[in-house]
Specification:
By secondary structure, the chain is mainly beta. The protein contains eight helices and 47 strands.
């Protein structure tokens, strides 16, 4: 069957000079082509039919002309000669695009169900003047943070530890600076972020709620690029430096300025993150004050690229993310002044090496080895009680992976491989008064093989991926099979139907033992599964159950996209088994209970996105979900609302772009998350709080309005600058994001409310070379 008969809907019959076709397409799609005249000289093709998406039209031309059409952003397309040795792999990227400018420029919807974010082409979102990696994904339907942090992202009702966060293929255990208010990853050396909520590729393990795959540029740029910038929280710099025709160095670094200068933004961040912590509580005690607090953070990322030959490439990756807090606690006891220094250190270091070989234009392999080390250390002095508490949580994650890709033709793709992972996690708690020390360390080794096949029709209307992953955990002698499915079908030219499904599992999770863990600031610690469903006693010591977490998810969606109008609806059902009460952050009658259970969530994600010419884009996203726990040993086995059960969530926003000026305004609203109030019949004399039914009440609704604006201008022909300003929570709404109850010395019940960020301004200035 020849290409014309297969692509009858894609191309017209009459061939004409390519230069003429390019002029027609520039007018039709409001784009510009960039090319060397010699590349298109004497080239002829057939004009793609009207009504096709730009990506399908470009693919039709690529098939006929054997030229490479690279969509750089919504406005520019580069035409290059096809590199025969990498041809099939480059083509696949263009074929998979379904929706460009999803919400804003730089965000793309693919037909495998994932969303790709490209910071370099990023437009603007309300409240953001820089493309913060983990803040940006919260604009997607079904993704939010119930406490406004990037260290607690809830994807379809899951907890943050159920997200697999990868930095250039390396698993990360720390995601934020300022203890969760800022992403820990620089966007300026990030090529793309791939986000999967369902239908994940079989090559990914872990992450039962989502995959957040942060990828750095992997091809030599051979062009020097650099930039510096600052805002009211931090300063940063980045550079891409060609060292030779075969080597390149990518570098980025960022450091807070909060220990050098105090700003209104820092004041709001400090108030938000340190409220209800040892640092702020000690300020309220007349006998003990905290002063001279020193807080700073930094990150350093380095990637070295070396093309050994045309077929062989090696890459080295290094990352260090650090948060550091010190403060002095001072007290007067028996007319004598005493002062002791409390500290909190949080750090994630990662080192990796990746080797890629293209054996032919259809067959390639990629090998990677990495080590990721997470360290959380705290020393907390309580002068009044003459007590010193040391807490440590450390993770060592080492992995070896071999990935194999084979593409026999433009329609089929085969992917498979093997991954070995060893994870060791330790937890230390040391108290001097009364003397107590606990040190627990566990190690798990996991072997996984995976295979996946993909089919894409010649007209790019049908996409089908089917695969599976088989995990073997040697310590438990357990095999876990995980099928994966992704199906996408375009019909009636402007509609696309989608089915996604997956089984997944993970053996790492975070627990919250007490609210004053790690000075009450970073309350989560990593633990490993022990594959136990019930508590057991060994050597007079109780071992709490931490099962392997397993999930099943199925979703179906339909998308309509025509004339810059996108209407998208997706419904899903997800069941997760093996969660523990200690990992869910209970602050009610179950706070100190150790039980295992599950949660079920059913929901619908809806998006309406309309773009008016190239200047205005508006969208409305709405999510409805019902998320419920079931613990057989709690609440008489009856289901009750999940701690992250946000029933309704709505996002209304708009952006305006005119030449170098960008402006965004948006509203975020969601129903209050569940909470448990004291029972009306609470006995005031029993020295404990009697609660009502778990999560039988809700906090007040959450409402926030944000705005942001940027302006770009040229300093010289080669130096460009951007200034920006944003206001988070323009209306200064006092949103309560968490409520819990305590007993005071008089045995009275006190209500403690944690508030969201108040009105928070920020400004930035950047220079690009």
């Amino acid at each position: 069957m020849n290409i014309e008969s297969v692509n009858a809907q894609v191309i017209q019959k009459e061939k004409q000079p390519l230069i003429s076709i390019l002029k027609v397409l520039e007018s039709r799609y409001n784009i510009k082509f960039s090319y060397v005249d010699a590349f298109i000289k004497d080239k002829k093709a057939t004009l793609p039919s009207e009504g096709l998406t730009l990506e399908v039209a470009l693919e039709a031309l690529r098939t006929e002309t054997r030229l490479d059409f690279q969509l750089l952003d919504k406005r520019f397309v580069a035409i290059k000669k096809t590199n025969s040795e990498r041809n099939s792999f480059k083509v696949q990227e263009l074929e998979e695009v379904v929706i460009n400018n999803y919400l804003t420029t730089g965000i793309t919807k693919l037909n495998d169900g994932s969303v790709t974010i490209k910071p370099e082409a990023f437009g603007i979102l309300p409240g953001l003047i820089e493309p913060d990696v983990l803040q940006t994904i919260q604009s997607l339907p079904g993704v939010l943070s119930s406490d406004e942090t990037v260290s607690n992202i809830n994807v379809r009702g899951g907890t943050h530890d159920q997200n697999l966060l990868l930095w250039d293929g390396i698993k990360m255990y720390q995601s934020g600076h300022f203890f969760g208010l800022i992403s820990a990853f620089s966007p300026y050396t990030t090529k793309r972020i791939n986000v999967f909520k369902n239908g994940t590729s079989a090559k990914y393990g872990d992450g039962i709620s989502s995959i957040i795959d942060i990828q750095l540029p992997d091809e030599l740029d051979r062009t020097f690029k650099a930039g510096i910038g600052f805002n009211l929280i931090n300063a940063d710099a980045y550079a891409k430096i060609p060292l030779s025709s075969r080597t390149e160095l990518q570098f980025s670094t960022r450091r807070s300025v909060t220990d050098l200068i105090l700003t209104p933004t820092y004041d709001q961040y400090f108030k938000r993150i340190f409220q209800d912590s040892d640092l702020s509580n000690s300020n309220q005690d007349s006998n003990s004050i905290s002063k001279n607090e020193q807080f700073y953070f930094y990150d350093i990322a380095v990637k070295f690229l070396y093309d050994i030959s045309k077929k062989d490439k090696i890459r080295f990756h290094i990352l260090n993310v650090n948060n550091n807090l010190n403060y002095l606690e001072q007290s007067t006891i028996n007319d004598r002044d005493e002062a002791l220094n409390s500290m909190l250190l949080q750090e994630n270091r990662a080192v990796g090496v990746t080797y890629t070989r293209d054996w032919s234009n259809r067959f390639s392999t990629t090998s990677q080895i990495y080590v990721s080390n997470y360290d959380l250390d705290a020393t907390n002095f309580d002068i009044l009680n003459n007590q010193r508490l040391i807490q440590e949580n450390e993770v060592y994650d080492g992995s070896v992976k071999l990935d194999i890709n084979y593409q026999p033709d433009s329609q089929f793709k085969l992917n498979g491989g093997y991954q070995f992972t060893e994870v060791g996690i330790s937890n230390l708690e040391d108290v001097n008064n009364p003397p107590f020390r606990s040190y627990i360390r566990d190690v798990l080794r996991n072997h996984a093989i995976y295979a996946e096949t993909g089919f894409l029709s010649l007209n790019a209307m049908t996409k089908f991926n089917l695969g599976g992953r088989l995990n073997y955990i040697s310590k438990f002698n357990v095999f876990l099979a995980e099928p994966r499915l992704s199906f996408s079908q375009r019909f009636l030219n402007n509609f696309r139907f989608e089915i996604l499904g997956e089984f997944k599992s993970q053996t790492t999770s975070q627990i919250i033992d007490l609210q004053n863990d790690f000075l009450g600031i970073e309350k989560r610690r990593w633990v490993l599964s022990n594959n136990k469903e019930k508590a057991i006693t060994i050597n007079n010591k109780e071992i709490h159950p931490v099962p392997i977490i397993k999930s099943k998810q199925l979703s179906a969606g339909i998308h309509y996209n025509k004339n810059k109008l996108l209407i998208s609806a997706e419904t899903y059902i997800k069941k997760v088994n093996g969660i523990t009460t200690r990992s869910q952050g209970f602050q009610n009658q179950y706070q100190f209970i150790n039980a295992t259970g599950s949660y079920n969530i059913k929901g619908v994600d809806f998006l309406l996105n309309k773009q008016f010419s190239t200047t205005v884009s508006t969208w409305l996203s709405y999510s409805f979900s019902s998320n419920n726990y079931t613990f057989k040993s709690l609440n008489d086995g009856r289901s009750f609302p999940n701690n992250t059960d946000i029933t309704h969530a709505l996002n209304l926003a708009g952006t305006y772009t005119s030449n170098a000026f960008k402006f965004a305004l948006g509203l975020n609203w969601h129903s209050g998350k569940p909470t448990t109030k004291p029972a009306l019949e609470d006995d005031p004399d029993d020295n404990e709080i009697t609660y009502a039914d778990p999560n039988s009440s809700n906090l007040s609704d959450y409402l926030r309005v944000d705005c942001s604006a940027t302006y770009a201008f040229n300093i010289t022909d080669t130096v460009k600058a951007t200034v920006g300003a944003s206001v988070w929570n323009v209306l200064n709404k006092k949103n309560i994001i968490n409520t819990y109850y305590t007993l005071d010395d008089e045995n009275e019940v006190n209500q403690v409310d944690n508030e969201s960020l108040g009105i928070t301004p920020n400004v930035s200035f950047r220079v690009h070379f």
